[in-house]
Design a protein that fits this description.
- The structure is a single chain.
- By secondary structure, the protein is of the alpha/beta class.
- The protein has one domain: TIM Barrel (Alpha-Beta Barrel), CATH 3.20.20.70.
- It is built from eight helices and eight strands, in the order βαβαβαβαββαβαβαα.
- An eight-stranded parallel β-sheet has the order 1-8-7-6-5-4-3-2.
- The N and C termini lie close together (10 Å).
- The structure holds ribulose-5-phosphate.
- Ribulose-5-phosphate (5RP) binds next to strand 2, strand 8 and helix 7.
- Ribulose-5-phosphate is lined by residues 9, 11-12, 34, 36, 68, 141, 143-148, 177-180, 197-201.
- A divalent metal cation binds at residues 34, 36, 68, 177.
Length: 225
């Protein structure tokens, strides 16, 4: 089976019990904690910052924390999140004045680095930075809120990015975020994704393990071909 990662988005968790929620979803079989940072400027919502990331580490969370920066400017946040225990830091190219520099800052801070593409953001931002990328994240909704519907044109975009990654010969994760459910995860994987962010599909159900196992069963059917 391909090496698929499931990354629950804590945007849909119960923030009043965040440590327990993250612990529970990891115990239920999740691989990575997806941490959505929104600034009410780049996106029309306001969420959580480095203090909350550090609080999760202090609580005892050791799994990778995948910080998705939906903020502008970007660079000011990089060191703060690295110090707070982020494992992966991704940002939107439109939000950074100097994309190459922002990527290098993330790597210099000891984290994995990635670019995030909104549904209508063109892929040309990848042209000269493939050597600095550990992750490419395609948004399959417009960022800002959980619980939105998957935008179907993401499938074509995933196929295009998968070709670029395979053509580069590099080991780069292809992550997808927005509207991922048990009933579409196989189609999304078949288009090339290998890391799946899911918020409402997991946290809005009473049994996290059941959802994650159902997702893995769907992914196994893709691997089986
Ligand atoms: O980045 C995000 C929104 O900007 C969320 O991670 C994403 O929408 C996940 O939520 P859901 O799985 O409910 O669509």
């Amino acid at each position: 089976m391909a090496d698929y990662l499931i990354a629950p988005s804590i945007l849909s968790a119960d923030f009043a019990r965040l440590g327990e929620e993250v612990e529970a979803v990891l115990a239920a079989g999740a691989d990575v904690v997806h941490f959505d940072v929104m600034d009410n400027h780049f996106v029309p919502n306001l969420t959580i910052g480095p203090m909350v990331c550090k609080a999760l580490r202090d609580y005892g969370i050791t799994a990778p924390i995948d910080v998705h920066l939906m903020v502008q400017p970007v660079d000011r946040m990089i060191a703060d999140f690295a110090d707070a225990g982020a494992s992966i830091i991704t940002f939107h190219p439109e939000a950074s004045t100097h994309i190459d520099r922002s990527l290098q800052m993330i790597k210099d801070a000891g984290c994995q680095a990635g670019l995030v593409f909104n549904p209508a953001t063109p892929l040309h931002y990848l042209d000269y930075v493939m050597d600095k990328l550990d992750v490419i994240l395609l948004m399959s909704v417009n960022p800002g809120f959980g619980g939105q519907s998957f935008i179907p044109s993401t499938l074509e975009k995933l196929r295009a990015v998968r070709e670029r990654i395979d053509g580069s010969g590099r080991s780069i994760r292809l992550e997808v975020d927005g509207g991922i459910k048990v009933d579409n995860i196989a189609e999304v994987a078949a288009a090339g994704a290998d890391m799946f962010v899911a918020g409402s599909a997991i946290f809005n159900q009473p049994d996290y393990q059941q959802v994650i196992q159902a997702m893995r069963a769907e992914l196994a059917s893709v691997s089986a071909g």
